[in-house]
Amino acid sequence: MSTELVIKDLHISVEGTPIIKGLNLTVRQGEIHALMGPNGSGKSTLANALMGHPFYEIDSGKVTFDGIDVLELESNERAKLGLFLAFQYPTAVPGVSMANFLRMAVSAVRPGNSNGNETKLIPMREFRKELRTKMKQLGVDESFARRYLNDGFSGGEKKRAEVLQLAMLEPKIAILDETDSGLDIDAVRIVGESLNQLIGPNLGVLIITHYPRLLNYIRPEFIHIMLDGRIVESGGWELAQLLEEKGYGPIREKYGISEEVLANDGDQDFLSSLRR
C-alpha cells in the first residue's frame, strides 16, 4: 500500500489569529496535487505547520502520515518518516557547504543511521557517488556541491538546491511551497524539468502556488483552490485553466470572500516578520 498524508478538519492559528479554518486533504504516494490560492489564503501556513514549524499553533484537527499522528512528532521525526518541505524562502547558511549539509541530512533520514542524538554518516565514497549521480540526472554542475548552502545563490539556484535536496533525501511525500516564487520564465522551466525527473510512483507531491505557470511543466492530477483558510474547490486541470483565464475573482465572488479578507488574514504579515 502507498503512503498517505491525510489532513482532517485542520485548524491553525498564528499569534491567536485563525489562518487555516477546517482544511481537509489527502495526498498519496505517486499522486501529484496542486494547492492554489491568492497570497494570504493560508498556503504557506499550511506547509510550514505540516513540517512542524513551532510558530504555527495547531488548534484542532488531525494529520496522519502512513497512519502515524505527525502532530505529535518533531520536524526531524517527520522527515525520517518521509515527509519533505521545499521552502518558499530557503535560508542561506554561510560556512556550510552543500555537500556537507546533504551528507548530514541524508545520513539522518536513512534507516539505521540514527541512534538517539547520534547520526552515523554515510561513508564519503558512497555519498560522493550518489551525489554525483543525482547532480548529473538534474543537470547540476559539480561545483555546486562546494558552495555554501544558499549563500550568494540566485533565486533559481536556491530552488535548484531544494530540488537537489529532494532528490537526495528521497521522501515519500514532498510539499513544494511556491517553488516558482521569484523565478523568471527560464528558471521556472529549469526547475519544472528537474522536478519532472524525480516524479514517479514512489513520490507524492503537493505543489503550492498561486500561478499556473509551474504546472505547465508538472501536470498535476488534482487541483485544489484555497481561499480564506479552506479548500473551496477541487478538480482536474480545468481548474488551473479557469484561474489562468479569469483569475481568482469569480471564485471569491462565488464564496463571498473579498480581497480584504485575504489580505488581512495574517499569513503574509507573519511570514514577512520571519524574514526580517
Protein model, in words:
The chain has ten helices and 14 strands. Helices cover 37% and strands 28% of the residues. With 276 residues, it is α/β, with parallel strands linked by helices. It has a six-stranded mixed beta sheet, sandwiched between helices. A four-stranded antiparallel beta sheet has the order 2-1-4-5, with helices on one face. The longest helix is centred in the middle third of the chain and has 15 residues. The protein is globular and about 60 Å long.
Element layout with pairings:
Layout: E1 4-14, E2 17-28, E3 32-36, H1 43-50, E4 57-65, E5 68-69, H2 75-81, E6 83-86, E7 93-97, H3 98-109, E8 114-115, E9 118-119, H4 124-138, E10 148-149, H5 155-169, E11 173-177, H6 185-198, E12 204-209, E13 222-227, E14 230-235, H7 237-246, H8 249-255, H9 259-263, H10 267-275
Parallel strand pairs: 3-12, 3-13, 6-11, 11-12
Antiparallel strand pairs: 1-2, 1-4, 4-5, 7-10, 8-9, 13-14
Helix pairs in contact: 3-5, 5-6
Which terms would index this structure?
single chain, 276 residues, alpha/beta, Rossmann fold, 2 domains, six-stranded mixed sheet, four-stranded antiparallel sheet, 10 helices, 14 strands, 37% helix, disordered C terminus
Concise summary:
This protein is α/β, with parallel strands linked by helices and 276 residues long.
CATH class of the largest domain: Alpha Beta
Largest sheet: 6 strands, mixed
Mean pLDDT: 89
With helices defined by DSSP (H or I, 4 residues minimum), what is the helix count? Answer: 10
What does the radius of gyration come to?
18 Å
Q: What is the number of independent domains? A: 2
Q: How many strand elements?
A: 14
**What topology, given as strand order, has the largest sheet?**
6-11-12-3-13-14
Low-confidence stretches: 263-276
In one word, what is the shape?
A: globular
- Give the proportion of residues in helices: 25-40%
Query: For the terminal residues, how far apart are their CA atoms?
Result: 43 Å
Question: Which structural class matches the secondary elements?
Answer: alpha/beta
Assigned CATH superfamily of the largest domain: P-loop containing nucleotide triphosphate hydrolases
| CATH architecture verdict of the largest domain | 3-Layer(aba) Sandwich
Q: What string gives the helices and strands in order?
A: EEEHEEHEEHEEHEHEHEEEHHHH
What percent strand? 25-35%
